[in-house]
Amino acid sequence: MAYTRSKTRRRPSRNTRAGQQPAGSPHPIILTVTWLLTGLSGILLLPAAPILLTGMAIARTSAKRPDLSGQDAWKQPVPASAKERRQDKSWRRIRAWFTPCASRLNPTNPILPAIVAGAALAALPVHAKWGEPWAFLQFAATIPLIAAWPATPQTGPIHCGPRPVTWARKQASRILICAGIGLTAGIGLWVWVGNPYLAITPIGLLAPLPMLTAWKASRRQYHADRQASRMLNDWLAGMDKPPVDRPPTGLDGTITGPYGEIVARLTVSQANVWQDKKIRDQFRIPATRQGRDIAFSLDGADNLHVIVNIAPLQPPDPNRLIADKTSLTCYANMETARLCNNYNATGGKSQLQQVGTRDNQPACWVWRMDGGSADSDWEMIRRDWLRGSTAGELGDWGTLIGIRMIVDPGLDHAWLYTDPLDTIQFDEPKATKQHCRAFSSRTDGDTHAYLKLAVQSQQDMALWEDALSGGKLEPPMQIIYDRRIGADRLTSRDGMWALGQTPMSIPTKGGWQATDYMKTDLRAAFGDSTIADIVGMRNRGKWFTRYMQFIQSVPANNPATPTQLRQLTGDGLAERTLAQVIISRGFAHLLKHAAYVDLPRQCAADNTGWTMWRTDIQLTGGDTGMDARKAAPRLQSMLGCDMLLWDWHDAASVTLWAGDQCPADPDMWDTVRDQRDALRLRLDEAWSAAKLLAPDGRGVTTVNIRPWQGRLTRLDFHMPAGFDRDMLTGRLDTFLPAAGYAYGRPLVNDTADPSMFSLLVCEGSPLPDKASLDLHLVKPGDTRLPFAVKDDGSIAWFDPASDPHLLASGTTGSGKSSVSVSLVLAALTAGWQVLVTDPSKGANDFKPLADRLAAFEPSLEGCYALFQYAYREMRRRVQLVADHGGGDWSTLPADIRPPRMLIFCDEFNSLLQKDKAKLDNPNDDPDVANEITLAAWRNGLRASIGLWVSKLLTQSRSAGITLLLGAQQLNAGDLDLLPNASTAKGMLARVFLGVGQPQGNVSQANVREVNRLHRQATASGGMPKGRGVYERLGRGVDMVQCFWPGKGDELNRYGPFPGMEPVDLTPFMPAPPELTGLTEQSMIAGVEQTGPVVVDESDAQWVI
């Protein structure tokens, strides 16, 4: 069987045609019946209120929500068609009945008397028609009926209601007056008409009358809330996906601005979620279609509410905007939200306080933020939100609305204003309360100056951020402008350069200290400044770790500003500050950690043309004195000085002296104490430069510096344990140049402390280049003879009482003959018997004095005779002393005491050298035979002379006989040719002139010191003629400048001398040798005359 579809169209049901609710919800029928009965009762003047009240209660109870086919973004059912919207609206309306009853029937609500008055009016016609029972029924039912009447239902998740109004205490007097008038009028009407409900009506209508303004305000607020909620609901309805997990549920507190701004409080499930930029961007899509923008702000610490801000995309003119608090609040919240989104922060609502006007319109506000992370990080706001950028959405706060913001230096609020700042009139009592006194106390009562300083601070902070970005350091937390020292106080004496000094605090987060900032080179960031450095700040003898000072040259790039200490003279505040910067920069760049450098002091006297800066330095970060010493050469170069002196107090604390010289003249110094301390440190540093340091770091320390004789200065030092005199003497070649001295000579320790070491020093040579002989120093009968000037300016005396004999040697051209001539002249003046011999060159230097000498023998035979006579005279005197009771020559009676005798023999080293050449004579040649005979004869004479000299050296002291031996520079073993050489050499004092090998010329104990003196003299200009060393027996050596007596006929000016009889040496002349073929005398004479004559040119006139 086949089924076919009916072609008859099915008729729609009655309910469908009527467009009413589905059969499942009976409330429409109940409402229809209720309204019909209510209308009929009203026509018959029967109590209609009970019927309507009952019907509405039944309809509300029986109403069922319609089945909705649509879904919102949160998957909740919503109407999908017009029919469903009507059904849903009907259901919402009936369900809204009786909802307001609780608030309207609350005795605190001023609407309750009005409701009662309305019920009384409704009961009047019923009372007139049917009497009291029915009127009371109407009256009683009308009260809840009016209270239950609902407002227009709202669609969407966001709902709002009117703000409840309660009795106002400040209106109590007016309320009582109105209630009294109503009561009087009601009683009068009751008595006049006889209807008791007329007595209720006047009091119910007049008593709430003072609250009418509050009702109107609540009504306006309600309308504004409904408008804002309707807008938000529409935007939410158009979203495909939910912006948050749970939709907002309520809205209140709406305020509107004159330019379309809306600020309202939105009830949410979790406030922080609404700070997400994605949520704002999702809302901005529908808002932009209507020419609006939207943003959300936190409502303080309330986590269940946020502040929604809606404003036109195009903001009004900045001056108009800032003149309206609501508009400014809205746009300020939106700017805050934009910046928070850009910098991953959360922002709270704005709180504004007007503090300034322009043309009687608000122009400046104090702005605070309530809630959010940004509220607790105003440093972030100043650093990130005000970078000077105008790049639209990425620009600074206020760039999109034309409002200027300055973060207050107190970091708890900001100032909002429009330019120009100077045209704003401030309410100073109110504005001054907002000043941060820690930032500036000098601007109290002057908000213009305060804000200008804050603007400068903001600009400076931006500059600091850029300058420190490379070092990953935070900009200063605060710039302390009140303690800033300007260029007017830090200008150099010559006016060519100036500095600015600004204290500032360091951010607490990050753990940074002032020394971290000192290592950053800021010069390029601050306009290629000549000086742009951070230095530390003193705090009662210690150093601030959270404060620092910024020093900058004014103008920034000023080539006239010194950058080296040697260029920096004077002791003004500007000069001292610049010296502090230069030293601090050097330590910061060369050590691992920066150091705290105190304000230096100039130690040089004014207008002396040199500089020496003294300052205290505290090393940090574990840096030690050894680290600083290792960096000393580079530090000296970087500071631009020629000298660094260190006075260490402990491992990390030092007083540094830096300058270009360290003069010994006290008049060159600011104080004598400075000179003494600097010289002491220079000496200590010189020992360190000589690498004389103990393993524990201790070195030689200076104990005393005192002037000495002549140009000399005496230095006393203390040697640490483990050091001895030889160690210090061996380092004098390094010590003296490092200490600034050209001459130095160690002294014998004259104290009981074995750790003491003393030196005589001089910055140049203490000796004159030439010293003339002055015989006024000698008196007849003197037993000691002057011959030179010592380094201390005193006379060098040859005293046979302590030094029996003297050897004068020297290099060619050193002026050694002047020593012999000076001593001979002095001996003649003292009345000594003087004998002179020189078999090598004929004693040419003494020929002008030959007639004044007791003996003058220029030949070998005469030398032989002279020493034989001297030996026999010694024996005679020794016997004479013995015959007179012993003792020595000086104990002899004056009438029999022979004169003191001085025997001078020149070229003594040549005299001792025997002729060792061997001549063969196989042909028996008489000339060769004679030559062999003469050589043996002369060698015999030399042997005899050596024997007598040796005996004289060792035995003649007590006989008053003194030998003066002259020689060319000796070799180490030359005097060993003497018999009993060791004893003989021990009886000789030495004078060694010129620079040569000291071995053989001085005792072995003093060879090292003589070598050092020679090196010292060579380094300081060399040795002039007559300069040498004088060694007394068993003592050290003295550098001397020997007297210059003149030569040739110049010697005739000396005298007259005490008369002295010549000595007849004829008996002591040697017998001539027996020669072959010639007479003995002619042969000897011929040989002597034809032999070479050595002329010493060393004693030519000295030219200085």
3D structure, described in words:
The protein is of the alpha+beta class and 1104 residues long. The chain has 5 domains: 20-212, no CATH class; 243-434, no CATH class; 562-661, Threonyl-tRNA Synthetase, Chain A, domain 2, CATH 3.30.980; 686-766, Threonyl-tRNA Synthetase, Chain A, domain 2 (2-Layer Sandwich), CATH 3.30.980; 802-1051 and 1060-1090, P-loop containing nucleotide triphosphate hydrolases (Rossmann fold). The strands form 7 sheets. Strands 25, 26, 27, 28, 29, 30, 31, 32, 33, 34 and 35 form an 11-stranded mixed β-sheet that branches. β21 and β22 (713-718) form a beta hairpin. α6 (111-130) runs antiparallel to α7 (132-148), α6 runs antiparallel to α9 (196-206) and α8 (172-193) runs antiparallel to α9. It is rod-shaped, with a radius of gyration of 61 Å. Residues 1-14 have a biased composition (Basic residues). One of its GO terms (molecular function) is ATP binding. Keywords: ATP-binding, Cell cycle, Cell division, Membrane, Nucleotide-binding, Transmembrane, Transmembrane helix.
Count structural domains: 5
Quaternary organisation: single chain
What is the helical fraction, as a range of percent? 25-40%
**Bulk shape:** rod-shaped
Name given to the CATH homologous superfamily of the largest domain: P-loop containing nucleotide triphosphate hydrolases
The assigned CATH architecture of the largest domain is: 3-Layer(aba) Sandwich
Regarding CATH, which class of the largest domain?
Alpha Beta
> How far apart are the first and last residues' alpha carbons, in Å?
159 Å
What is the radius of gyration computed over CA atoms, rounded to a whole number of angstroms? 61 Å
Runs in which pLDDT lies below 50 for 5 or more consecutive residues are 1-22, 1079-1083, 1085-1104
Kindly state the number of beta strands: 35
Domain FtsK: 792-1002
Organism: Bifidobacterium animalis subsp. lactis (Bifidobacterium lactis)
GO molecular function: ATP binding; DNA binding
Biased composition (Basic residues): 1-14
